[in-house]
Design a protein that fits this description.
Helix content of chain A: under 10%
Radius of gyration of chain A: 13 Å
Number of strands of chain B: 11
Number of helices of chain B: 0
Distance between the termini of chain B: 37 Å
Distance between the termini of chain A: 37 Å
Number of helices of chain A: 0
Strand content of chain B: over 45%
Oligomer: heterodimer
Radius of gyration of chain B: 13 Å
Order of helices and strands of chain B: EEEEEEEEEEE
Chain lengths: ~110, ~110
């Protein structure tokens, strides 16, 4: 079983739609959580950190459920520019290294 | 300030040659990570440094791969006797400390012919 699992998608949604991605992680000792986005043939870029209380940044909302060991990302009012691969990332535990999911591909259609 | 800098951005090498990839982290960042990504694949962890020490080398694919970090700053990833399966984008990231968000360089695209 992978340490971080994501639905690979693709998620094809129209502009203006709301879309949600979930991610599950297996290491209960994980301490920090992030969402990154990666555009085609580019490096991953930090989208937002994920806090236990949940956090929002504009159209993006991230939630963490430690009991169920899952993380979610909600994107409201999707834009064409949101098209990318979204990577779920955990950090911490015994090895203290960033563990990446394989990513969820989002394609926002005009 | 400057972000994570990697060089070269592209490298084409002949099978069997050695290559050295460089990563210059954000100033003051103590943690440094190396990943590689093959086309259409996810990020594969290679190694990380806390300061100059590497607590976890478990991701290095074989003994042809080695990495070092000196002065708590620049890191080099060396691949000896390159093979075609080593072709990938090698990504470096750094963070202030462990457990904080990491920032990536633009990567080195390695092609072994």
């Amino acid at each position: 079983r992978k340490e971080v699992e994501q639905d690979p998608g693709p998620f094809n949604v129209p502009e203006g739609a709301t879309v949600a991605f979930n991610c599950t992680y297996s290491n209960s000792a994980s301490q920090s959580f992030f969402w990154y986005r990666q555009d085609c043939r580019k490096e991953p870029k930090l989208l937002m950190s994920v806090y236990s209380s949940g956090n929002e940044d504009g159209r993006f909302t991230a939630q963490l459920n430690r009991a169920s060991q899952y993380i979610s990302l909600l994107i409201r009012d999707s834009k064409l520019s949101d098209s990318a691969t979204y990577l779920c990332v955990t950090l911490g535990g015994a090895t203290n290294k960033l563990i990446f999911g394989t990513g969820t591909l989002l394609a926002v259609q005009p | 300030g400057a972000g994570v800098s990697q060089s070269p951005s592209n490298k084409v090498t002949e099978k069997g040659k050695d290559v050295e990839l460089r990563c210059d982290p954000i100033s003051g960042h103590t943690a440094l990570y190396w990943y590689r990504q093959s086309l259409g694949q996810g990020l594969e962890f290679l190694i990380y440094f806390q300061g100059n020490s590497a607590p976890d080398k478990s991701g290095l694919p074989s003994d042809r791969f080695s990495a070092e970090r000196t002065g708590g700053s620049v890191s080099t990833l060396t691949i000896q006797r390159t093979q075609q399966e080593d072709s990938a984008v090698y990504l470096c990231a750094s963070s202030w400390t462990m457990n904080t968000e990491a920032f990536f360089g633009q990567g080195t695209r390695l092609t072994v012919v």
